[in-house]
Amino acid sequence: MGGRGSSSPKATGTSVKQRVMTGGASGAQVQQRMHGTVMSTTDTSGERQGPAVVGASHTLDEVRAMSDTQFVKYVRGLENSVSDSELMSHGAGLDNGTVTNYYAPGPREADFQRFLYDTGANGRPNVVSSQHFQQMDGDTIYRTVTTSSSVPGDTATVRADRIINGERTATGRGIYGAGLYFADSKSDSKRYGSSVPGNSAIVRAKLNQNARSVTETSLSRMLNKESATVRSAFQDSSGYGFKSEARKSIYALWKGYNVIDINGRGYYTVLDRRALTVSDGIETW
Fold it and tell me: Are 136 and 45 in contact (CB under 8 A)?
């Protein structure tokens, strides 16, 4: 990503040997599929880091080792893997009170949340003190959150703390993939805040050594090269885009990426918090 947003030491994306699921693809096939890396759980730049896997029934390695047919069947069955009530209990869909409303246009958009839970890609970010964060190299990226208008007690501060310390990742909706949206400009990020004083909070982060980024354009090009089986589950009727933002993010993680670079526009969709080193200081206004 041209050094944008990487913390010190510079992100390199060290490859990790894949564990192959019985009956799935060969180790060579998994390595070929993996354009990125499995995220390390070793904390090399922060002060504390939470567990990498919470209640997972698969691992990303196992999912990547599936044949195309197995993988497509797995993705299409995600809606039955985690209930809406469980998603709600971990912060998904709190804005409007239901998963269906939050993940517009419908429940299918919640499948990325289910994919994270099922594969254990819910690891917490590296968390450092505000003072340490200020001394780190690399560009800072920002995520602004606002107080919920429908859920009592779900304040901007609570929501920001959920990103930093939450047991599970509660992703948001958008048009550039399901995930956590960040901007490399603080002023741009603050534009998504609330007009009500005290109802906005901002999280500061840097992409760390676990980050593996890919542009939206590159993802679409990769999809075009997939088998007809995979394209049938992910590609829209135009033959170029994705069926949904959830499917776009699932595909990115399947290919080994955990950050979608919005084609150099200064915005990023973070798919796995382990790609982040975040400051424990939350700014509110």
Answer: yes
